[in-house]
Design goal:
With 333 residues, this protein is of the alpha/beta class. The protein has helices at residues 41-50, 68-75, 91-101, 119-122, 146-161, 180-187, 197-205, 244-255, 262-267, 275-286, 299-315, 318-321, 324-332; strands at residues 2-3, 6-7, 26-27, 37-38, 58-62, 80-85, 106-111, 138-142, 173-179, 206-214, 219-220, 227-234. Bound molecules: S-adenosylmethionine.
Length: 333
């Protein structure tokens, strides 16, 4: 296989993939789909290892491209592997992999956008497990395009908060790649320089771990950045049990004024005439010190702030629909 004129690989696989060879074709990496391919089998094996036990489990791989991670997954012999790839040009190569895995793995190829993929259909035969018990034998694995990964993780966190989609089966695990800086943000603890809204959102619903970093030079074509492999495992007891959009709104409002003391940002949750009363009330209900900056607040404290905001919204229903940005726009017009 060659991409951008690079000769990429001629694959020899172990076990049931022994006779599989990827035919020589020319495929151009599409920049708009952020196609940076991993060709080092040691790295793709390491990504799959980070997902934990997948033998006899159900796996969805996001964006398999020419199938290097796919092969590492197939070597572990999952019960079922669904690959969801947007670029139909990879279909022949993926079909060869499916053929090579024969009856060993039930492999399903879906050409389409992962954002509209229906996991409930794909994992129809997978066993569900109680949210408070062991996680189900289901894993989502992917070396995603950077442009899609952050957006996707926010969507998936929303689905986790509602126990829908892949999380209607229980606490389905994720092993995903992100631009290294984004991986650092996802796991950033309180006071860390990378701590942001994404850190708090991820940590409210998941146990997060930045497993390792892959140097940019391991990809073809080489991206300008290094890549972090992150596992996200939904928490048995998420730190908040509130509507996702409400939590997102509170956190966005706080982190919009990242370098200022928290009360500055928090005030923007309330209509101007109510700020004098409700701003201090938010912090006192939550029992959080407002004389710190947004990245100095712990995830637990943010959970309490969100609950306090919810209580205030119940007392003053007009607060919930208040949107500081919309007000600004109206003023500007
Ligand atoms: N997994 C391969 C690897 O590691 O070499 C390819 C990784 S490449 C960074 C990302 C892949 O995701 C590409 O094959 C691209 O076509 C695919 N992709 C991009 N957007 C997608 C989407 N919304 N849904 C599914 N696949 C997508």
């Amino acid at each position: 296989l060659s991409i951008y004129g690079y000769s990429i690989y001629s694959v020899k696989q172990e076990n049931f993939l022994d006779d599989f060879e990827v035919p020589a074709t020319t495929t151009e990496a599409l920049r708009q789909l952020s196609q940076n391919f991993l060709m080092d089998e040691r790295i793709t094996d390491k990504i799959v290892k980070a997902a934990g036990k997948i033998h006899n489990h159900f796996v969805c791989e996001v964006g398999p491209g020419p199938g290097s991670i796919t092969r590492s997954i197939l070597k572990k012999a999952p019960k079922k592997l669904v690959v969801v790839e947007k670029d139909a040009r990879f279909l022949p190569t993926l079909e060869l992999l499916k053929e090579a895995s024969g009856s060993h793995v039930d492999m399903v190829i879906e050409i389409g956008d992962i954002r509209s993929y229906n996991f409930e259909v794909g994992f129809e035969k997978a066993p569900s497990s109680d949210w408070f018990g062991a996680p189900p034998p289901i894993h989502l694995i992917g070396n995603l395009p950077f442009s899609v990964s952050t957006n996707l993780i926010i969507r998936w966190l929303e689905a986790i908060s509602e126990k829908k989609s892949a999380w209607s089966f229980g606490r389905t695990s994720m092993t995903l790649t992100f631009q290294k800086e984004v991986a650092e943000r996802i796991v950033a603890p309180v006071t860390h320089k990378q701590r942001c809204r994404l850190s708090v959102m991820c940590q409210m619903w998941c146990d997060v771990d930045h497993k390792f970093t892959i140097p940019g030079k391991a990809f073809v074509p080489k991206p300008d950045v290094d890549v972090g492999v992150v596992t996200l495992n939904p928490l048995k007891y998420p730190l908040v049990n509130l509507p996702f959009k409400m939590v997102e709104k509170v956190l966005r409002t706080f982190f919009n004024t990242r370098q200022k003391l928290c009360n500055k940002g928090a005030d923007r949750l309330f209509p101007e005439e109510m700020r004098g009363e409700l701003g201090p009330k938010l912090f006192s209900l939550a029992d959080v010190n407002y004389r710190v900056r947004p990245f100095e607040i712990t995830t637990e404290e943010y959970a309490r702030i969100c609950f306090a905001y919810k209580l205030i919204c119940e007392e003053h229903p007009e607060v919930e629909d208040y949107n500081f940005r919309a007000t600004k726009k109206t003023v500007a017009v």
